[in-house]
Design brief:
The complex is a heterodimer of chains A (113) and B (110). By secondary structure, chain A is mostly beta strands. Chain A is built from no helices and 11 strands. In chain A, strands 2, 4, 5, 9, 10 and 11 form a 6-stranded mixed sheet that branches. In chain A, strands 1-3-8-7-6 form a 5-stranded antiparallel sheet, with no helix packed on it. In chain A, a hairpin with a 6-residue loop joins strand 4 and strand 5. The termini of chain A are far apart. The N and C termini of chain B lie far apart (32 Å). Chain B contains no helices and 11 strands. Classes of the chains: A mainly beta (113), B mainly beta (110).
């Protein structure tokens, strides 16, 4: 069974703090790891993605850290803002393509003002 | 107009009724998907279609059926709705870049 395990299920952070969401996978053939952000009443939208040939990717306040040997990857949100409050999903896919994703169970992030 | 449009946005139906959720896309993508979202369970794949003639079951296809009427249209049917099918349903398309999701259909079966 191809699975991606995500934690925590919910996270509360103060404004300006760092939010960290973790994911672990079993299938070593996974080679594309995106994160999706979902606001209430909306569908998930691609936030940032990484491939296993790099250990870190940063886009603005959002950073993915990737540990291939541990089969883990995480999303770090620096200087968290109330507008970052959303549900975040990690995902993984095979064959270097974004076209067949396995999703984690989601993390509901609340950033307090 | 949205790239992926789902109708209806909200629906309440009774147990045993047949219901269809519709999805259309303007992305021109071949691949389309139906997911359901439940709290704590994430996004679970119901059915996916690689093109009009290629439809595949996902991990939770029991109780659901789909129809790919055209490249742009992919509908999901519940032949006889039951209360545990109450959920948020998403249609999505995909390309090499990633998935594009619709805004979802909130279905309640009473």
């Amino acid at each position: 069974q191809q699975q991606v395990k995500q934690s925590p299920q919910s996270l509360i952070v103060q404004k300006g703090g760092i939010s960290i969401i973790n994911c672990a996978y079993e299938n070593t053939a996974f080679d594309y790891f995106p994160w999706y952000q979902q606001f209430p009443g909306k569908g998930p939208a691609l936030l940032i993605a990484i491939r296993p040939d790099v250990s870190e990717k940063k886009e603005g306040r959002f950073t993915i850290s990737f540990n291939k040997s541990a089969k883990q990857f995480s999303l770090h949100i620096m200087d968290s803002q109330p507008g970052d409050s959303a549900t975040y999903f990690c995902a993984a896919s095979l064959s270097g393509s974004a076209r067949q994703l396995t999703f984690g169970s989601g993390t509901q992030l609340t950033v307090l003002p | 107009d949205a790239d992926v449009t789902q109708t209806p946005r909200n629906r309440i139906t009774k147990t045993g009724k047949r219901i269809m959720l519709e999805c259309s896309q303007t992305k021109g993508h071949d691949r389309m998907y139906w997911y359901r979202q439940d709290p704590g369970l994430g996004l679970r794949l119901i059915y996916y279609s690689f093109d009009v003639k290629d439809i595949n079951k996902g991990e939770i296809s029991d109780g659901y059926s789909v129809s790919r009427q055209a490249q742009a249209k992919f509908s999901l049917s519940l032949e006889s709705a039951i209360p545990n099918q109450t959920a948020l349903y998403f249609c999505a398309t995909s390309s090499m870049v990633g998935y594009t999701f619709g805004s979802g259909t909130r279905l309640t079966v009473v």
